[in-house]
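User: I'm putting together notes for a lab meeting next week and I want to include a structural view of one of the chains we've been expressing. I don't have a solved structure, so I'd like a prediction I can at least talk through. The sequence is below, exactly as it appears in our construct file.
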Amino acid sequence: MVVLSCDHGGRDLALFLQECLVKDGICVEGAISLEQTVDYPCVIPWMVQKVRYDKKMGILVCGSGIGMSISANRYQGIRAALCHDETTARLARQHNNANILVLGGRLLGPVLAWQCVQVFLKTTFEGGHHQSRLAALEKDSKKVPFLYSSFQND
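Assistant: Thanks for the context. Below is the predicted structure for the 154-residue chain, given as structure tokens.
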């Protein structure tokens, strides 16, 4: 199961990725609005709930990917990685145990974006010395606590 969401700047790429994931036999849960304008902070709470509490992998797409990355990484337990190629997607999983892949819909072509998704989903976290770094980040984190009980799912 993969959770996919976007704002208006990433809509076209997100719809393409959704189609690719389904063709690959991967179940996709999505929040892709067809409204003309969707502010990226509005899609983040739903996504982080699914990733953090339901232990799913996430994909966020906005125009550049920067806004989604900043917004998602404000929440505890979320490690959203803005990736630009297969190497950054692989390293985001191997070294950072990223649980959300963030892509720039106006910056990446669909083929490269799909390659990033495939690599991200197939790569596992190496652990080892990377685990102690992640533990230190979480310990010192001033991220917004996310209270599952306060989330209303439509």
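A couple of points you could mention at the meeting. Confidence is low (pLDDT under 50) at residues 147-154. The domain at 2-149 is CATH 3.40.1400.10 (Ribose 5-phosphate Isomerase B; Chain: A,).

User: Perfect, that's what I needed.
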